[in-house]
Write a structure and sequence with these properties.
579 residues; alpha+beta; Ferric Hydroxamate Uptake Protein, Chain A, domain 1; 3 domains; 5-stranded antiparallel β-sheet; 26 strands; 31% helix; globular; disordered N terminus
């Protein structure tokens, strides 16, 4: 084991110190108009160039470099160079300058100014790090207490929550501190601590130093549709505190509203497969229109030579035959074209997704092993291979991969992470030991692990994408037709995408519990991946998570049609319903 770790440490270290120069090319644009004379440079170096007449550019870079794209009046974009980076077609967005007042006539949308003016008088409003929420129109359960109901008997925030919010579990005291968790009628229901949003500042521990008499208003958020903006850190609930000191006057230049308020009632505007399929490439349309597998094979063989160097053709073709019951032919395609996949982790991952979704676990495992060799410094490589070993029944290897990841983190060979993939890895490793502990350690009994990471009353959704450049928006529509959106775009979440590349992960989880009965709809609006290739999105739905009846379903979606809100799947209690 020590020898294996030593070899791995050497490999990981080598990936950081060995510079690999490459040529990056692409086009720059703004609203589909080419940008001429835009500046492209390598951060912290003297390497720079300008875009040409059609927005084209080319620049030399090394893996790990950060490329900056600048153009006057537009937002600067930073992109981390990865092992597979070769083409980057980048769109720059307009710089947003906040206006003092915008008046839109005959609009039902409430302006930011109107909400600020109404805040002192409307006890249903609360200021958050992402804008003002209105209890009357919020897409989920929300409880607010105004200063008039905050009594002097409360010594700190822990007492206030303990005494005045039912369903909120509080431990500790106002001297040593403590912890808070939200359970019960919420869309996130597991034993995990809340985060605190204090005048827009996010804190992980209770702010016991705030005197209750200095609190203007306090709210508790528990539902997914309300906490989704906070990402995974808010998955255990959010306590929002507006202090008197943090209540800015509307005319103050210090106040900055970081969210755009919108009417969030879903009007069923997402398109289904019938429309989405209109954007498919010709070869895939022909496959789908084939009358029988023999006709589909003829179509594949006809197009094979034309697309011989285009990996997505073989990914889509093998995926088609897997989905239509001819796994033998699908695996033959993959084996014959392995030279396109084995040294390209993005393509290999897409193939592995399709194989995994259709029960071909051993072949998927081979690809995950290859990806691990190619990317030993990516946290995702450890997680994917550990879960793949688990799927193939190699529980000891699975546990060893998780242990190896933790060891390299502790030794500083991998970048530590607290809000990205690390909580996902911790949850899944705990779940492995809780359910398969007797198989990991011979003679041992199944281990009781923390409910924080192993069990909750609902469905766990894990989204993974093969291409780290992929930009998209996930829309979650609850049974009451209210929605919220998680944005994975450079415009809305550039720091998150940069963090993913620096630490090596491309996934996000959402915990949806059964307290809000009915059917959920999940949609996607795909924005592209800076090149003319599709992105493959894997969605794993875990039911009865952490119990002996735990099960999962894997679906893979090909994202190619851009800037259209498309239906992905529906979630009804414990059943995944594909469109």
């Amino acid at each position: 084991m020590k020898n294996l770790l030593a070899i791995l440490i050497f490999v990981v270290s080598a990936t950081f110190v060995q510079a690999q120069s490459k040529y990056i090319k692409g086009k720059l644009s703004h609203m589909e108009t080419p940008l001429v004379n835009a500046e492209i440079s390598i951060q912290n170096s003297d390497i720079k160039t300008k875009s040409g007449l059609n927005g084209a550019y080319a620049i030399s870079a090394e893996i790990g470099d950060i490329i900056e794209y600048r153009y006057q009046g537009l937002e600067t974009v930073e992109i981390v160079v990865e092992d597979v980076t070769s083409i980057l077609n980048v769109s720059l967005n307009q710089k947003i300058t906040e206006l003092d007042e915008v008046v839109v006539k005959q609009s039902r949308r409430v302006s930011r100014r109107d909400l600020e003016l109404d805040y002192p008088h409307n006890k249903n409003l609360i200021r958050t790090a992402y804008g003002i929420l209105n209890k009357e129109t919020a897409p989920g359960q929300m409880r607010i207490i105004d200063k008039a109901n905050i009594t002097a008997v409360n010594l700190c925030i822990l007492d206030l929550l303990r005494n005045q919010f039912a369903g909120v579990n509080v431990s500790g005291d106002c001297i040593q501190g403590g912890s808070v968790s939200v359970r019960g009628a919420s869309s996130i229901n597991y034993d995990s601590g809340v985060v605190f949003d204090v005048d827009g500042q996010i804190l992980n521990t209770p702010p016991i130093w705030i005197l209750p008499e200095n609190i203007e208003r306090i709210a508790v958020l528990g539902s997914l549709s309300l906490t989704i903006k906070y990402g995974f850190i808010g998955s255990g609930g959010v306590v929002i505190i507006n202090t008197k000191a943090g209540s800015y006057d509307l005319t103050s230049n210090e106040f900055y509203d970081r969210a755009r308020l919108r009417n969030n009632m879903y009007n069923d505007n997402a398109v289904g497969n019938d429309f989405s399929n209109t954007g498919l490439p010709t070869y895939l349309s022909e496959l789908q229109e084939s009358k029988g597998l023999d006709a589909a094979k003829e179509s594949y063989l006809k197009n094979k030579q034309m697309y011989r160097n285009f990996a997505p053709f073989f990914i889509d073709a093998s995926g088609y035959f897997l989905a239509n019951g001819d796994s033998k032919f699908a695996k033959q395609i993959i084996e014959n074209q392995m030279f396109l996949f084995e040294d390209h982790p993005v393509y290999a991952k897409a193939i592995a997704y399709n194989l995994e979704a259709h029960g071909e676990k051993e072949m998927a495992n081979t690809l995950y092993e290859q990806i691990f060799i190619l990317r030993p410094n990516y946290a995702q490589s450890y997680r994917d291979l550990a879960e793949s070993y688990r799927e193939t029944g190699n529980y000891k290897k699975s546990a060893a991969m998780y242990a190896r990841h933790n060891y390299l983190l502790d030794e500083g060979f991998l970048v530590k992470d607290s809000i990205g993939i690390a909580p996902i890895i911790e949850r899944e490793s705990e779940n492995l030991l809780a359910l398969e502990g007797d198989k990991v350690m011979e003679g041992a009994k199944t281990i009781n692990r923390s409910a924080k990471f192993t069990e909750f009353n609902g469905t766990r959704l894990l989204f993974e994408w093969n291409d780290s450049e992929a930009e998209f928006e996930l829309q979650f529509v609850n049974p009451e037709k209210q929605y919220d959106t998680w944005k994975h775009t450079m415009e809305a979440n550039a720091l998150r995408i940069k963090d993913e590349k620096m630490k090596g992960y491309s996934c996000e989880e959402f915990l949806v519990d059964g307290s809000l009965p009915g059917r959920w709809q999940v949609n996607v609006d795909y924005k592209g991946n800076k090149k003319l290739e599709p992105t493959y999105l894997k969605v794993t739905s875990y039911y009865n998570y952490g119990t002996t009846s735990q099960r999962k379903e894997v679906q893979v979606y090909r994202l190619g049609l851009r800037n259209v809100n498309q239906k992905l799947f529906q979630l009804n209690n414990s059943s995944l319903i594909s469109n």
